[in-house]
Amino acid sequence: MSKFGLVIFDCDGVLVDSERITNRVFCAMLNELGLAVSLDDMFERFVGLSMPQCLELITRMLGERRRKTSWRGCAGARARRSGRR
To answer: For the whole model, what pTM was predicted?
Structure first.
Protein backbone atom coordinates (compact mmCIF):
# COMPACT_ATOMS: atom_id res chain seq x y z
CA MET A 1 0.00 0.00 0.00
CA SER A 2 1.21 3.51 -0.88
CA LYS A 3 2.02 6.15 1.73
CA PHE A 4 0.03 8.67 -0.28
CA GLY A 5 -3.75 8.73 -0.48
CA LEU A 6 -3.77 11.59 -2.96
CA VAL A 7 -1.33 13.30 -5.28
CA ILE A 8 -2.15 16.72 -6.70
CA PHE A 9 -0.40 18.00 -9.80
CA ASP A 10 -0.38 21.78 -10.08
CA CYS A 11 0.68 22.44 -13.67
CA ASP A 12 -0.57 26.03 -13.85
CA GLY A 13 2.40 28.25 -14.54
CA VAL A 14 4.57 25.27 -15.44
CA LEU A 15 2.86 23.65 -18.41
CA VAL A 16 0.21 26.30 -19.02
CA ASP A 17 0.50 30.04 -18.36
CA SER A 18 -3.17 30.65 -17.68
CA GLU A 19 -2.52 34.03 -16.03
CA ARG A 20 -1.66 35.63 -19.37
CA ILE A 21 -4.66 34.02 -21.10
CA THR A 22 -7.03 35.05 -18.30
CA ASN A 23 -5.76 38.62 -18.34
CA ARG A 24 -6.22 38.87 -22.11
CA VAL A 25 -9.86 37.84 -21.75
CA PHE A 26 -10.36 40.10 -18.73
CA CYS A 27 -8.77 43.01 -20.64
CA ALA A 28 -11.10 42.47 -23.62
CA MET A 29 -14.12 42.42 -21.29
CA LEU A 30 -13.06 45.68 -19.64
CA ASN A 31 -12.53 47.26 -23.06
CA GLU A 32 -16.10 46.20 -23.97
CA LEU A 33 -17.29 47.97 -20.84
CA GLY A 34 -15.62 51.16 -22.06
CA LEU A 35 -12.46 51.01 -19.95
CA ALA A 36 -9.38 51.60 -22.09
CA VAL A 37 -6.93 49.22 -20.42
CA SER A 38 -4.02 47.33 -21.95
CA LEU A 39 -2.59 43.95 -21.08
CA ASP A 40 0.23 45.76 -19.25
CA ASP A 41 -2.42 47.65 -17.23
CA MET A 42 -4.01 44.35 -16.29
CA PHE A 43 -0.79 42.99 -14.83
CA GLU A 44 -0.04 46.27 -13.07
CA ARG A 45 -3.49 46.84 -11.56
CA PHE A 46 -5.20 43.46 -11.13
CA VAL A 47 -2.69 40.61 -10.72
CA GLY A 48 -2.60 39.52 -7.10
CA LEU A 49 -6.09 40.82 -6.27
CA SER A 50 -9.07 38.63 -5.44
CA MET A 51 -12.11 38.80 -7.74
CA PRO A 52 -14.08 40.92 -5.19
CA GLN A 53 -11.13 43.34 -5.05
CA CYS A 54 -10.99 43.44 -8.87
CA LEU A 55 -14.71 44.17 -9.06
CA GLU A 56 -14.37 46.98 -6.52
CA LEU A 57 -11.52 48.52 -8.51
CA ILE A 58 -13.51 48.22 -11.74
CA THR A 59 -16.52 49.83 -10.09
CA ARG A 60 -14.34 52.78 -9.03
CA MET A 61 -12.82 52.99 -12.51
CA LEU A 62 -16.25 53.05 -14.12
CA GLY A 63 -17.54 55.74 -11.77
CA GLU A 64 -21.02 56.87 -12.78
CA ARG A 65 -21.03 54.59 -15.83
CA ARG A 66 -21.40 51.56 -13.55
CA ARG A 67 -25.19 52.01 -13.43
CA LYS A 68 -25.32 51.31 -17.16
CA THR A 69 -22.85 48.42 -17.02
CA SER A 70 -23.71 44.76 -16.68
CA TRP A 71 -21.01 42.14 -16.24
CA ARG A 72 -23.51 39.46 -17.22
CA GLY A 73 -24.41 41.34 -20.38
CA CYS A 74 -20.77 41.73 -21.32
CA ALA A 75 -19.91 38.09 -20.67
CA GLY A 76 -23.10 36.90 -22.36
CA ALA A 77 -22.44 38.91 -25.52
CA ARG A 78 -18.89 37.61 -25.63
CA ALA A 79 -20.07 34.00 -25.24
CA ARG A 80 -22.64 34.41 -28.03
CA ARG A 81 -20.02 35.79 -30.42
CA SER A 82 -17.69 32.90 -29.71
CA GLY A 83 -20.48 30.34 -30.18
CA ARG A 84 -20.37 29.05 -26.62
CA ARG A 85 -23.93 29.98 -25.80
So the answer is: 0.62
